């Protein structure tokens, strides 16, 4: 993976998707603020998001990539086409059955999530019925994404969030222009989201038949296909089950957070949702690009027994992700309140909403680096189809997070939920790196990691001093002043950070050339 232009291309598409999602969140915050309706939308969407996207969709789609890549390398394109269509049909049947079960259990699900709040329960139930089909559409779409990634077509799968968010953006814009109330408009927004996911599934599957009919690429190295005798169907579902269990262990934290937030002050669930999505943007844009490109690459390297290339891919991925996510983590933690105020404080999103969201973001910002490093390390275990230890680690991290959530929220309120998430993410990240070190040598990682950490200290102190000075002078109020404050802080941090990285010979810039990241491990 010497050239990272696929990562850059995918990151650019991810950035466009993140911008669309961000604009959707801004309009939703303007439209609903942190009201009961905002909590209802967050809870209703959470159910199909947890079941269909975070668990089933992610598990099945991710499991398909190494299996499809192995079939393509060892058995050829015809065998891949057969497996793709069979898997798509099986996923459709599974998700339809799951949808029917969720439909029957919907009243009980809403009653439990709402925590006995009658108004919240009444607002959430009809929305859940609207968005529940997402649990069918997204897993089907995820199989299509896996096919595109296996065939090294990354842009359309990564453009998925653009499609889904465009429909929500359009519906919110029309509702706000028409002056509709939050209560009457939330159903329209929910229908727009469901329709967007259905369009995404169709857009991914329509070109697949043509893609699978293309001429099979010539193979540089002859490959012994003895390993291909393992039934791919059983292998795929076994891996999907293992990864689904891992995701369940990880994402049970989200359920616990919303369960606790629903029993706090009004708007806590919505604030949690805004803070969570804001903290996930860097992970989505940059780390998501690396993960999308790395997984099929690692799977092919394992199938071809390219040990050295595989180790280089992992080291470069970890190094580059640390270079980017550590400064983003520090900046968002220090500037959380002005960031939330600049992005969301308009319409129904008032000063109380800003403070509530910033409180949650205080801890959530710390998860950016932890989740990013853990996600890159996990790609190796997904590619090698060895998920037992990472699954146990996921449950351990979740137990730590939930325990911290309960203890800290009892003392610090909604702020404690963010720090609970950070504690669990740190445990998961640390364990993932230790497990990875047992598989490939990461002994030379300590020194460059410490140097990257050291490079973040001087710019962090400068930005802290700048923010403290502006706050003391009262010069950071109003949209334009906030914008100048944040832009100046980011520029100051970036210039000092890059200068330090160059002096440490961790990166090299050529004038008029693209950035080259030098690995000194």
TrEMBL record:
One of its GO terms (cellular component) is plasma membrane. One of its GO terms (molecular function) is lipid-linked peptidoglycan transporter activity. Keywords: Cell membrane, Cell shape, Membrane, Peptidoglycan synthesis, Transmembrane, Transmembrane helix. InterPro entries: Lipid_II_flippase_MurJ/MviN, MurJ. Pfam families: MurJ (PF03023). One of its GO terms (biological process) is peptidoglycan biosynthetic process. This is Uncharacterized protein. It comes from Paenibacillus darwinianus. The lineage of its organism: Bacteria, Bacillati, Bacillota, Bacilli, Bacillales.
